[in-house]
Amino acid sequence: MPAQIEPLRAFVRALPKAELHLHLEGSISAELSLRLATRHAVALPGAEGGLAGVRAARRVRDFRGFIRTYLAVSSCLADAPAVTDAVDELAARLAARGVRHAEVTFTACTHLRRGVAEAALVEGLLAGRESAAARGVSIAYVLDIVRHLFDDAWPTLAFAQAVRRHDPSAVVALGLSGPEGGDHPLTPMVEVFAAGRAEGLRSVPHAGELLGAASVRAAIELLAADRIGHGVRCLEDPAVVELVRERGVALEVCPSSNVALGVVPSLAAHPLPHLHAAGLAVTLATDDPALFDVEIDDEYLRCAAAFELDCEALRGLARRSLEYAFVSHATKARWLAELDAVVAPAEQPPVQRVE
Ligand SMILES: [Zn+2]
């Protein structure tokens, strides 16, 4: 790593930021998953080899393997304290990197199907949110539906309502994840997203990751997407690029995830500069930081190196993340003022040595 990276990392960490695309289940570290698996007698791949075994087993090689690992780690969330521990661990990592606000995706139905009580999940999420706030990170949840599990759509909305009965601000949106494909049309999801919108829940589906621009168009036209998870393949159709720009839909771009899952062959080949050049609102995010072994400051720095982004370009990415967060105007204005006040490394006065 070049010697000049450290001042730049310090700058990136100092920028107030929002993390708008990350999954709670994909944020659980190898250490915590092993601890929770032991506590709840859950079969975790690689556990027989201790921490090193768990780390090796969770190395992502392709989408299928990723889903297997993801579900294994998910099964560690067996009760309220486990959920709280996961949120708190994530918040500690985010706080250390200057993240002020995170919109964290949680796939409630995966856990409900495994027999975890709704009350335990609600309690765990709310308690986790409180400990995150104590660390200086505001957390709001995105409740997501797995694309091909139509039967989970309404129960997911019902779960969002259950959380909101305790705290209306705790859930901000409905999400949609899982493999994109012709076999899983969005039509059955239209009504549930409309019902969510009627209650003030925003729409943040994944699209344009495994499938092309038509998937992004469907997410906007059928689900009224406010932001799109990934969306990078919108570039395959100029008319869709125009649609994204016209509607002011932000893209939650997760370059390391795209490389790990083979959406792009390498970071250098990632279309981030083209998305930016097309005038689209790009935010940087990590998707599943603990499975892709990336933290948000790494993501900024990797992009800075790959695309020769200067400090102002990095500040612009952080700005976008705050602008497109679902928080009040007053909060946003405060964070943006703090963002503008962060001094870039080149402008810092030389250190005065006192002998
Ligand atoms: Zn995702």
Task: Explain what this protein looks like in three dimensions.
With 355 residues, this protein is an alpha/beta fold. The protein has a domain of 226 residues: Alpha-Beta Barrel (TIM Barrel). 51% of the residues lie in helices and 14% in strands. The chain has an eight-stranded parallel beta sheet with strand order 1-2-3-4-5-6-7-8. Helix 11 links the parallel strand 6 and strand 7. It is globular and about 50 Å long. The C terminus is likely disordered. Bound molecules: zinc ion. The site of zinc ion (ZN) has 6 residues, from strand 1.
Which ligands accompany this protein?
Answer: zinc ion
Count of beta strands:
8
Query: Which spans have pLDDT < 50 for at least 5 consecutive residues?
Result: 348-355
Strand order of the largest sheet: 1-2-3-4-5-6-7-8
What number is the mean pLDDT?
A: 93
- List the total number of helices: 17
Can you write the helix and strand succession as a string? HEHHHHEHHEHEHEHEHEHHEHHHH
The termini sit apart by 31 Å
What do we call the CATH topology of one domain? TIM Barrel
State Rg.
20 Å
Write down the overall geometry: globular
Assigned CATH architecture of one domain? Alpha-Beta Barrel
SS-derived structural category: alpha/beta
The main β sheet shows up as: 8 strands, parallel
- What is the CATH superfamily classification of one domain? Metal-dependent hydrolases
Helix content: 40-55%
- What's the CATH C level of one domain? Alpha Beta
Q: Beta-strand percentage?
A: 5-15%
